[in-house]
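hi! just following up on the protien thing from before. the input was this:
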Amino acid sequence: MQEYENDRWRIISSKVGSGFSPTACRDKAEQLEAVEMAEHEDEDDEHSQQQQQHQHQQHQSAYTSSQMAAGPSDPGQSYQ
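and the predicted 3d structure came back as:
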């Protein structure tokens, strides 16, 4: 498996061009992956916060509308 990994980065470095060793290519790929993961986590956190705010708003609006409008289960409403 290690030999495959070494060959993989050797091939990648040859495609990138001279001046980039297989080790440098691997290190740069790891850095980019770490940045992408951090950005993805930030997006997940932001999305989660938006979902929680949306759920909170839905709960509030449903509670408020049930208090303000008489429904079929409201004993105070008269039926004719």
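Residues 8-47 form one domain.
Helices lie at 2-16, 22-68.
cheers
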